[in-house]
Automatic annotation (TrEMBL):
Pfam families with a match to the protein in the record: CK_II_beta (PF01214)
Task of the protein: Plays a complex role in regulating the basal catalytic activity of the alpha subunit.
Family stated for the protein in its record: Belongs to the casein kinase 2 subunit beta family.
Domain of life: Eukaryota
Biased composition (Basic and acidic residues): 23-32
Biased composition (Acidic residues): 42-55
This protein's name: Casein kinase II subunit beta
Region (Disordered): 1-55
Gene Ontology MF term list: protein kinase regulator activity
Known partners and oligomeric status: Tetramer of two alpha and two beta subunits.
Coiled coil: none
Biological classification of the source: Eukaryota, Viridiplantae, Streptophyta, Embryophyta, Tracheophyta
Amino acid sequence: MVAGGSKKRPDSGLESGVTGGGKEAKQHDHQFHGQPPPAELLDSESEEIELSTSEGEDSSWVSWFCGLRGNELLCKVDEDYIKDDFNLCGLQGQVPYYDYALDMILDNDSFSGEINGEELVEVEHAAELLYGLIHARFILTIKGLNSMHVKYKRADFGRCPRVFCTGQPCLPVGISDSPRNGLVKVFCPKCEDLYLPRCKYQSDMDGAYVGTTFPHLYLMTFPSIKPAKPAQCHVPRVFGFKLHKNSSR
């Protein structure tokens, strides 16, 4: 569950009859195992993504969901990626109402009239879970890394609260790849420590929606943006004198 609970989309397909569409998937956008994708390709694609995201308004379920308060840590997953069954392998057993949830994400109203109001709430929860698990896979692909790169450059994920990190932008991370095993945290690439997200409502997101791999693969992919470790650290003093390392024993 994200941001404290399911939020019903005002123009969901069940009520308004909005149907999804789009191009059929032409290729697999697979995850990278071992070596990260070329940085030059990623940089060029991230510029295209940054331009395309500023053009017009998108009324799809994905855009609505990513625009909800508390979901700022998520990026928009490409529709073609979601439609490719290969990318969703293994998720059916983890998500109840899987087919209905997938239809909701893709703006298909094929289940209209088949479920009652109480079941619709369950489908909405299932759609949130399914999208989160798909998102965790998507951000390990070329397009996903670039989408997150755009958000990182805008510091959408927040900044490190540590004084000596001087406002270093952070990256989201999960402490588990399995859902319901921990909430999302943010990772500072400068001090390499974990913190709670800057806003309480962002802290309610399941960490599995980002996963444990993303920030580290991201920094391998974009090595030039990895900052140097802080040159300063706090030195405890009492009346101006440094404390001996054994003083607390």
